[in-house]
Amino acid sequence: MSTVYDVTTWRIPDDPATTAHTDIGKIINSIIADVKAQQTTQSSRPGAVIYIPPGHYSLKTRVTVDISFLQIKGSGHGFTSLNIRYNTSDTSGWWEIWPGASHIKVENTDGNSEAFIVQRTGDPRLSSIEFRDFCLDGVSFTPTQNSYTNGKIGIRFASDNDACKVTGMGFVYLERALVNNGADAFDATDNFIVECGSCIELTGASQAVKVTNNHIGGGFTGYSVFAEGAEGLLVTGNNVFPRGRSVVHLKNSNRCVITANRFQAFYPGMIDTEGTNKENLISSNHFYRVPEGYPPMQGNDNGKDDLYGLIHLVGDNNMISTNLIDYNVPADSVKPSGATPTLILVAGGDANFISNNHCVTNIATNHVVLDASTTNTKILDCGTTSQIRSDTDSYTLRPTP
Amino acid sequence: MSTVYDVTTWRIPDDPATTAHTDIGKIINSIIADVKAQQTTQSSRPGAVIYIPPGHYSLKTRVTVDISFLQIKGSGHGFTSLNIRYNTSDTSGWWEIWPGASHIKVENTDGNSEAFIVQRTGDPRLSSIEFRDFCLDGVSFTPTQNSYTNGKIGIRFASDNDACKVTGMGFVYLERALVNNGADAFDATDNFIVECGSCIELTGASQAVKVTNNHIGGGFTGYSVFAEGAEGLLVTGNNVFPRGRSVVHLKNSNRCVITANRFQAFYPGMIDTEGTNKENLISSNHFYRVPEGYPPMQGNDNGKDDLYGLIHLVGDNNMISTNLIDYNVPADSVKPSGATPTLILVAGGDANFISNNHCVTNIATNHVVLDASTTNTKILDCGTTSQIRSDTDSYTLRPTP
Amino acid sequence: MSTVYDVTTWRIPDDPATTAHTDIGKIINSIIADVKAQQTTQSSRPGAVIYIPPGHYSLKTRVTVDISFLQIKGSGHGFTSLNIRYNTSDTSGWWEIWPGASHIKVENTDGNSEAFIVQRTGDPRLSSIEFRDFCLDGVSFTPTQNSYTNGKIGIRFASDNDACKVTGMGFVYLERALVNNGADAFDATDNFIVECGSCIELTGASQAVKVTNNHIGGGFTGYSVFAEGAEGLLVTGNNVFPRGRSVVHLKNSNRCVITANRFQAFYPGMIDTEGTNKENLISSNHFYRVPEGYPPMQGNDNGKDDLYGLIHLVGDNNMISTNLIDYNVPADSVKPSGATPTLILVAGGDANFISNNHCVTNIATNHVVLDASTTNTKILDCGTTSQIRSDTDSYTLRPTP
User: Fold this and answer.
1) Which residues of B touch C97 (CB under 8 A)?
2) How far apart are CA A266 and CA A292, in angstroms?
3) Which of A386, C36, C201, C358 could be disulfide-bonded to B319 (CB atoms 3.0-4.6 Å)?
4) Residue A71 forms contact with B (CB below 8 Å)
5) Are the beta carbons of B88 and A398 separated by less than 8 Å?
6) Mind listing the pLDDT tens digit for each residue in B219-268?
7) Is A40 near chain B, with CB under 8 Å?
8) Chain C, nearest residue to A192 by Cα
9) pTM over the 0.90 mark
10) Are C68 and C127 in contact (CB under 8 A)?
11) Which domains does chain C have, with CATH numbers?
12) Mind listing the pLDDT tens digit for each residue in C220-235?
């Protein structure tokens, strides 16, 4: 029996009229059912590969992936900017108006939010499922094309999983592109996840996840990268561009590494933290904060003001070092009006270590601000004495000479 | 003649009974023989691609790769944890008990250790051989399933080679997963190499190798990443987790770069060095050292005590900077009992430069210790005076304020 | 209609004699014409995938890619060193003398320089075109095999483009391997681009480009990585080896990030800048400068002397930090003779921040030199007072203790 399937040639035994073009979800579910029918013992379940050739497909039925080792694979991430398209008054002369390559329009008519859900009960955890090289397209936002909302989710891992991978994918115009609940050694690498409300969300506890070499750009309503309860997340080599409400948001996450990324944002709170976050390393990143430049979107923001901190830190023993932090906002756009913007705010916690950051600003800013509640912060080589503000005596400062 | 082969459809001319499922090694050797029979002049040897669809295959005969430009490719790394399986008393209710995807059980009956050996005499060196997206599984360890020993090797490059690549692969339960002797511009990227004794070993002299974006986790008997005589090795973007005896071991290796990795370990000597190692850069990594937490494995260690150094350095002019070093071992587990653990031990060498490391420890430690034999070490911003110990006067210290 | 094409089975309707082996360019143009004939409305243009199996192909006609979402894909980058081959007196006993895998000899007879040009007028920009896993080979240089010149270009993106990708490719013996004019969110990742005059050139304005995880090595006549007018270029995880005239050249480029790379070069100006370059971050890289060691090439250089700076910086607010800079050139090879070589030259600009670099040199050097025109440079922890030279009073220095 072959373990190689093609969505365009598969027919559902009792529903030969459905094709991948009319409902690729139903087709893939049928293929998975066939895999399960062929692989019936616990020592004969190697999985399969399902190929999606270039084409426009509609997904009306959610796919449930409940077998390990399944690879779903296309021939290209197929992104094109729907944001530009929908903000162009006349596209009648355009060459193309849809994303492409192995392109799935997420158009569930089954009452579900997800295009793909990965979920299984029992043991072991689902392992080594791979999504690669195709496009998940939410088609449109509501109530307006600039809202980043439509209730649609691209892929949701809903039960604990190990060694899974999402790579080479495109995600566009989904409210939530990729959600993984309970990830172990998960890889999100080499993807193009932009013009989505939230891009990568690690919910539940995760460990040892890598987010590497991606283009990521969320909406003002959502997260570019979100991690709750993460242990040892590695975020490196990514280009995260606007307009997510943050570029990386950590909630009760420990020992994560955020290094060697290029970050651009339109709002404060580029790195945002909540709860208690310990022993995270944020180094060798480039932060660039500018105002929103795109007229259709200039009315939006993430609700935070410039006192929130470009990096907003709560937690203990974190290290922020060797970053270039670039703030370039006209004085009359600063919020609250007339305030001195904060680049790094230590809003709470003990023994944070902030060193060797080069801050470049068009107006006077506080490079580091320490809340009165904080203790034992060390600040080395992050600015002159006048560029550091502390509301506590419990800190050590070595200003730049 | 086609250059695209499928192991499931190939038949050996004089042995039609053998299939990829009974001996994929013999099948691939026969395919390689066919490639050589088709490609007979020095200007007509483009190689071929051998595809391994998802399935469970047994390898009983070692594959010898002695042609350039061969790509051996499957549809998924197929890892599942055998360590959890073998430490579960009853797996009768499990969905699956084997790794999967393009899954090769390494079961040599030919007296050889390797599943794949890459080797050729004469000129030029073998070039551009690629292994990608399949699973090499050693099946079981002996004498116990927690020993990390079985004498099996996944892939061994045994002669000088250029521009080869191992990517997207899974390796599990092999004593030695991947060995490359004499590598030039080799890539080990995007692999899942865990639950193996040793994971990546660069023996002989190598140059310009990249180890990037991998999940790696060796056994207490072996190495996660080992390099001997390396020049310019780049290790970046990896998640290296326990329980290798070290996360990176350098022996007589120079000008290597270890940066932007997440490292977790159960033993001292996370970065270990022997011989003379010069001008290496270790920066922007997260080190996390905790005790072994998994009961079946708690009796094991790598034989080193907490005075060995979480980073053990011998050599000259190395730079260790901007790392977060996190040591969290209960006082009563420290070895020798009552000792003050060492985070960075400069055990020998001249002019090492250790700066801007943030050390987080649950008990008092020496952040840096200088052996009496060392000379001209510079230590900047790595702790207070009381956290640095030197047994020589030949050093410079700027403590943190 | 299938969207999956194979160059070896495609026949041109009015030219059945041409094959991929005789002119793969003409074949691919015919396939693209077929795609356009099949995909005729702006909502039915998902593109296609064109597969190039392993083989030696000749390209005599330039390919014009003027559709979005096209993936051109082979089965291996196929590099082998032509430089070694052409500098070996007798290769008659060699196993192979050509590159391989999916190997295209660039032999245009159509008067064009490029093997592939990507270009379209009108809206939207071309999106999500992918070149992956094949080899573009310029075959030979003229007038000598060591000249790095032959007028040939591998791939040139000639009009604005979005979200395109070049990955897994091999480029060899092309004067210019990969040129992208007007790139947005472009990826050059996991390629092998060596023995070419110039390797990666980002001309026109680009934004948010990633150059990650590549092996790169240009010729003394050209650039390994060149960016003009770039905004937010991310260069990380690369191994850039000799002998490019520079490893990264920035011209009027801002907010770029060069981090976690291994760089080796034979000439001064490893990082070179011209025009005005602002707020770039250069951190956690290893720089290694040695003399050319290969006898056939020892007569060449890039025309710069050792006072030019291993890093030559013009611009404002750039940060150079946490690099290991290794200079190992015999005293009698220094140019001008008897000069004290410069490692980092700030040749012009304001408020550059140079900190925490470890400089390792076999002879006395100036670690940092400030031109008289420069203002407000900060130099922290880069050497002793005697290792820093300033021709201006407008700077701040904290020497290493």
Assistant:
1) 42-43
2) 5
3) C358
4) yes
5) no
6) 998 999 999 999 999 999 999 999 999 999 999 999 999 999 999 999 99
7) no
8) C163
9) yes
10) yes
11) 1-83+97-138+149-165 (no CATH), 197-401 (2.160.20.10)
12) 989 999 999 999 999 9
